[in-house]
Amino acid sequence: MTLSVTFGCCSKVRLFGNKATVNLCRKLSDAPISSDETQSSTDEKPRRTRRAPGNASVLLFPGQGSQFVGMGKGLLKYGNVKEMFAVAQKVLGYDLLSLCLNGPEKDLMKTVHCQPAVFVCSLAAVERLNHENPAAIESCVTAAGFSVGEFAALVFSGAMNFAEALFAVKVRAEAMQKASDQVPSGMLSVIGRPQANYKYACVQAREHCLSLGIQEPVCAIANYLFPDGRVIGGHKEALDFLQSHSRELKFMRTRLLPVSGAFHTALMEPAVEPLKDVLRQIEVRRPEISVHSNVDGKRYMHDKHIRNQLAKQLVSPVKWEQTLHEIYERGQGQEFPHTYEVGPGRHLGSTLQKCNMKAFKNYTHVDVALTED
What we know:
This protein has 17 helices and ten strands. By secondary structure, it is α/β, with parallel strands linked by helices. Helix 7 runs parallel beside helix 9 and helix 13 (269-281) runs antiparallel to helix 14. The model is unreliable at 1-6 and 8-47 (pLDDT under 50). This is Malonyl-CoA-acyl carrier protein transacylase, mitochondrial. It comes from Culter alburnus.
């Protein structure tokens, strides 16, 4: 698998649900690609051979919350990045590159915009890595993405086409925003003491909501980040309770995240069916490399597995700590792979450092904002 093949597949968009999008995708699928790309996209691709851990690489793709105004600067000179943003403008219906480079920040922070932005910029970072260190791409045996980052990981792995995956991300982001607008909710980052009981804290917060007359209150762990590091999502009143009772709950630090809703909790249930619908319509293949699911940390096995898990992910906690253990579990004395975080921010590197310091020693961040020559 090469990056040109990945984007060659991206340009050959298939069909989506509504008529206007179908017509757009037919036009995009007429986009010229090189004969090498055509050959590569039609030939059966061999599975990768096993590599010694020290000679292998892992790519990690960030999720929502890592975005910032200025990302994408200096990346247009790499590979297919310019074409990727051109396709994104047609799929999304607005100038994503301008939004990434210039903001305004309040628009980039919106769920409907930041998810596609992080997705495209992460794959643009892969193009940069391919230019500067092609061996890192060729030796990649495993990929994982945090929340929306899973879609970028699946595109990189050859399981999805770029434009189809981007359209799915667009539908996902819009559905999640709509679900968020239905009830005041959010997400709370928590670092607790070893004796903290996060699930019991959520039970107490739900009981508090019931006492306020809130029916079917939601408060649950949304992200497992690292030992004693969690993100809890739920009704606003539940999160207020957790913050005001943080000392009794053995929480050392709490911080409300700048997101519009309680992602990866039951409050996202209205977003599941729209995502299922679009995933049924796009082409999904078995990944060429190992890609790990947020739902349980295990590898995706086939196309149906991917579709099911991506839909389930919306209402299930992101088990990132468990995923890192799956990827980096090693026997004593065995080498660790080189790890590249491709995309905005260094959040995944920070969690890796807290989960596995030995693996972190081989970590590199591939930035998405450069000083242009």
